[in-house]
Design brief:
Shape: globular
Helix content: 40-55%
Number of strands: 14
Distance between the termini: 21 Å
CATH topology of the largest domain: D-Maltodextrin-Binding Protein, domain 2
Length: 463
């Protein structure tokens, strides 16, 4: 691996790390069923095989024993040795140790990556093996079998584990007070209308219809592409070929939505308050300073309240809004774990069987997370949600059916591989958005300056 490739990898990971926000270690749970198209095809190795599984997260966080023992019961000729590179679940620590292990030639068979950037960069560095051969042998389509499409450059290098789509947390008491129903399918225009109707009072005690937790410091950029994010393709600032997507009309709509709600409707918490008071979405929602919060479903494990943020009202969940009623439903930002086979593995078929099991039966047996697997039965998903909510302080105050419905119908947009200049593009968007929201430039100037500056970064990367 040459110096340039490593520097590009680090730059790309830094970019995606900022976007990842707090989505890292928060997820969901359940119990058992057999996949209809599981990884039972192919011949079992003649002699026992031991897989080296590089991972992160404690036993309490991940239930490794349940996953591994249930796999070994199904495949007695394959053993799994867990090599935990971060007991505390620090994915940055894990990534550094994983790269060192790969560089030193350490034996490895299975790896997990916590987000798209970490995954795509290791693919680019040649650390990950394509698995199309095994997928084709089984005869299934990843896009039908899973809710996250992990394809990169026309090939599959991983299968998706847990499934954390974004959704809207709702204060159900506030909805009732305003005569509003819990939405099951809605648009951003309807979201904005709800926010206006939910806004109440004035001054320091004003209750806002919604709170947006970004952008800030080059991170939480998701909040400047809300209208882009519910598209199955081209849902990010850059396209899959690394060119700019900032001229997409839906990027303009995303910024217009934010400006309208804060400056005209005055239904969203001011950006200046978020920055100066260092506000955070948890207290804003649980202290009832905002009635709706768009956020990732890592919040499943906190919906019923925690010691720090007890729940003193009823809460429901609504799907990520669409742009028009005719748009496909369910698309939003999604976080997952990418389960991959190491390029250096001498046991690739056995390693594939493990990641296939892990992302189907294994995630259910794990009892912690909602799987990306589309064949999870409704009763299994209900058990998973029951397990998650049971760990909160007031599970009875959560509209469980609204949560299950949203999770059942959520899907992920097509992955956009990170680039070496991605962090700089994010920084540009943040800076130009801030000038707009602080009334230092108008919308047209903001869009033009963002596009021009981003294009210069893209052009300079080719020199």
């Amino acid at each position: 691996m040459n110096k340039k490739r490593w520097s590009q990898m680090i730059a790309g990971l830094a970019a995606v790390g900022m976007l990842a926000g707090c989505s890292g270690g928060n997820t969901e749970g359940g119990s058992g069923a057999a996949p209809s198209g599981g990884a039972s095809g192919g011949t079992t190795p003649a002699a026992p095989v031991t897989l080296k599984f590089h991972a992160f997260g404690s036993e309490a966080q991940q239930n490794w024993t349940k996953v591994i023992s249930s796999f070994e019961a199904k495949y007695p000729d394959i053993k799994v040795e867990l090599i935990n590179l971060s007991e505390k679940g620090d994915t940055q620590e894990y990534a550094k140790k994983l790269d060192l292990a790969a560089a030193s030639g350490e034996a490895m068979d299975v790896m997990m990556f916590s987000e798209a950037g970490m995954y795509a960069q290791r693919v680019a560095l040649g650390m990950v093996a394509p698995i199309d051969e095994f997928i084709n042998k089984e005869g299934f389509k990843v896009t039908e079998e899973y809710k996250v499409d992990t394809q990169l450059n026309g090939k599959y290098y991983a299968l998706p584990g847990k499934f954390n789509p974004w959704y809207v947390m709702l204060n159900k008491n506030h909805l009732k007070e305003a005569g509003l129903e819990v939405p099951t399918d809605w648009t951003w225009d309807q979201f904005a209308d709800y926010a206006k109707k939910l806004t109440k009072g004035d001054g320091p005690t004003k209750r806002y219809g919604t709170y947006f937790h970004g952008p800030q410091g080059g991170g939480w950029l998701e909040f400047t592409r809300l209208a882009l994010a519910n598209q199955p393709d081209n849902s990010d600032y850059l396209k899959t070929d690394g060119t700019s997507n900032l001229d997409n009309p839906l990027f303009r709509k995303s910024i217009e939505l934010r400006y309208q709600m804060e400056k005209v409707d005055k239904s969203s918490t001011p950006y200046t308050d978020m920055i100066s008071q260092k506000l955070h979405y948890r207290p804003q929602f649980f202290n009832q300073s905002a009635s709706m919060v768009v956020i990732g479903s890592w919040m499943n494990s906190e919906l019923g309240g925690t010691e720090q943020f007890p729940l003193n009202f009823e809460v429901a969940v609504a799907p990520f809004p669409k742009n028009t009623a005719s748009d496909p439903a369910g698309y939003s930002m999604v976080t997952t774990d990418f389960m991959a086979v190491a390029a250096s593995s001498k046991n690739k078929e056995a390693a594939y069987k493990f990641i296939r099991y892990f992302t189907t039966d294994g995630t259910i047996a794990q009892g912690k997370y909602v799987p990306s697997w589309t064949k999870v039965k409704n009763e299994d998903l209900t058990k998973i949600i029951d397990t998650i909510l049971a760990g909160t302080k007031s599970p009875d105050k959560v509209d469980k059916q609204s949560l299950i419905t949203v999770l059942q119908n959520s899907r992920a947009s097509k992955l956009v591989p990170p680039t070496s200049y991605q962090a700089d593009v994010y920084k540009v968007i943040n800076e130009e958005y801030e000038k707009l929201i602080l009334d230092k430039q108008n919308l047209d100037a903001m869009l033009k300056n963002t596009q021009d500056r981003a294009q210069k970064l893209i052009d300079s990367s080719k020199k």
